[in-house]
Write a structure and sequence with these properties.
Blueprint lengths: L2 H22 L3 E12 L4 E10 L5 E13 L3 E8 L10 E9 L14 E8 L10 E2 L6 E10 L1 H5 L7 E3 L14 E7 L2 E4 L1 E6 L17 E3 L25 E3 L4 E3 L42 E5 L2 E3 L5 E7 L13 E7 L7 E5 L9 E9 L9 E2 L3 E8 L19
Parallel strand pairs: 1-12, 14-22
Antiparallel strand pairs: 1-2, 2-8, 3-6, 3-7, 3-9, 3-10, 4-8, 5-6, 10-11, 13-14, 15-17, 16-20, 18-19, 18-21, 21-23
Length: 411
């Protein structure tokens, strides 16, 4: 064989090798979960499932088979949806949903073996002849699907509790099953091959508020005095959660004044200032001036400020315990009951002070705002804020007379 033929044959073999290598090269991917949303009213937590190219190349995303384990004591799977183009991919197809199994006898590596759940779903290409989307070479994350879970109260409100989710993969979850996450690469028409997973980023406490949801949701409570005994009376209002006190789920865009903060429970205080222990003064919906003259038979006007950007009607209701018996159920004790589709229709609360009001005592004043109508002074509502105040009714000179005094006229 002459040198030219040998060189041509070598070059041909190199070309064949390069083509074979190109065809056989496998795309590498990273996989992760990121927090999408938290619905505090329903305890629904949704996570985005995301992929990216892990090898610096652009490659076509074909079918996917996702398998993961999570702690059933903290969450239960509710729903899933594909976020990939429907023109290229079939929808979310559930294969297995196995919840809350005691697998402690397995002696595996997962910390939540006694309450283990397994989820398996697929999303295939509609046709392998045309392929689907590509994972960019720059490593940008692409959201492929969304998973929603019903979260336990402890996950949402306890700062020490964090959700753990582990992707099924070799050398990590082998003890439970030998089926792992699979992602395939579209090479050319009617030609796909398995891609190789590099990083599997699940969820654990190291992910911070992605996994530990405390602070994502919260409630606002009142702070009138409460002996926690279930009784009512002077300086004894039902404020604690255990006594049925007022409780509002905090949402964006609906509150009294300029701010609202999260409470762990009712925070009774002799001066109704217990809600400000976090150095955030959120008792700012009403302005009760020290110069306000409150006397039996008089009329008082109290400036009111509130925010409603929810797009829904806000209902504002207020009560004053005129007779000091520790509740707001007596006649004339509801002093305000209005609705406002936006915010700003009402600048003040105006009410008459009953002639038989208790004098020289601290009387409870409770105001609530919510998207729910027909509130009572107690109980939970799904939005807004409650604020508590204390006011005192005093006699003007020569206006009030001591009870039991009789006046007779001498001729």
């Amino acid at each position: 064989m002459n040198k030219n033929k040998a060189f041509i044959l070598l070059l041909f073999n190199l070309i064949l090798f390069c083509r074979a290598s190109s065809v056989l090269a496998q795309g590498n991917y990273d996989l992760r979960l990121t927090l999408g949303s938290v619905d505090c009213a329903t305890n629904t937590v949704c996570y985005d499932v995301q992929l990216r190219s892990a090898d610096g190349t652009t490659w076509g995303l074909a079918g996917q088979n996702y398998r993961l384990y999570y702690d059933a004591s903290l969450a239960s799977w509710q729903s899933g949806v594909s976020t990939l183009p429907t023109a290229n991919y079939q929808g979310f197809t559930l294969i297995q949903d196995i919840q809350n199994v005691d697998a402690s006898a397995t002696m595996g590596s997962l910390a939540f073996e006694e309450t283990i759940s397994f989820l398996n779903y697929t999303m295939d290409l509609s046709t392998v002849s045309t392929g689907g989307i590509t994972l960019p070479a720059d490593g940008s994350w692409v959201t492929t699907s969304q998973l929603c879970f019903l979260a336990a109260d402890s996950l949402i409100y306890d700062p020490t509790v964090c959700l753990e989710v582990v992707w099924a993969r070799d050398n990590v979850t082998d003890e439970y099953a030998t089926s792992f996450v699979e992602v395939s690469e579209w090479i050319e028409p009617n030609n796909t091959q398995m891609a190789i997973g590099q990083v599997y980023d699940g969820l654990d406490a190291s992910d911070g508020n992605e996994s530990c949801l405390e602070g994502m949701c919260g409630y606002d409570y009142g702070d009138l005095p409460d002996l926690a005994s279930g009784t009512t009376g002077i300086n004894d209002y039902e404020t604690y959660d255990s006594t049925g006190g007022p409780k509002h789920l905090i949402i964006d865009g609906l509150y009294l004044g300029d701010t609202v903060d999260i409470d762990n429970d009712g925070v009774p205080n002799t001066h109704a200032l217990g809600d400000d222990t976090d150095n955030i003064d959120d008792e700012d919906g009403l302005t009760i001036f020290s110069s306000l003259d409150i006397f039996p038979g008089g009329t008082i006007k109290i400036p009111l400020h509130y925010v409603n950007t929810t797009g829904a009607t806000a209902y504002i209701e207020a009560w004053i315990d005129w007779n000091g018996d520790g509740d707001f159920l007596d006649a004339n004790e509801m002093v305000f009951d209005v609705s406002d589709p936006s915010a700003g229709l009402y600048d003040y609360i105006e009410t008459m002070v009953p002639l038989d009001s208790n004098l020289n005592e601290q009387l409870g004043f409770r105001i609530r705002i919510s998207n729910e109508d027909n509130m009572t002074p107690l109980g939970i509502v799904s939005s807004g804020e409650v604020e508590d105040y204390l006011i005192q009714v005093n006699c003007k000179p020569f206006i009030c007379l001591p009870k039991g005094v009789s006046i007779s006229r001498k001729n």
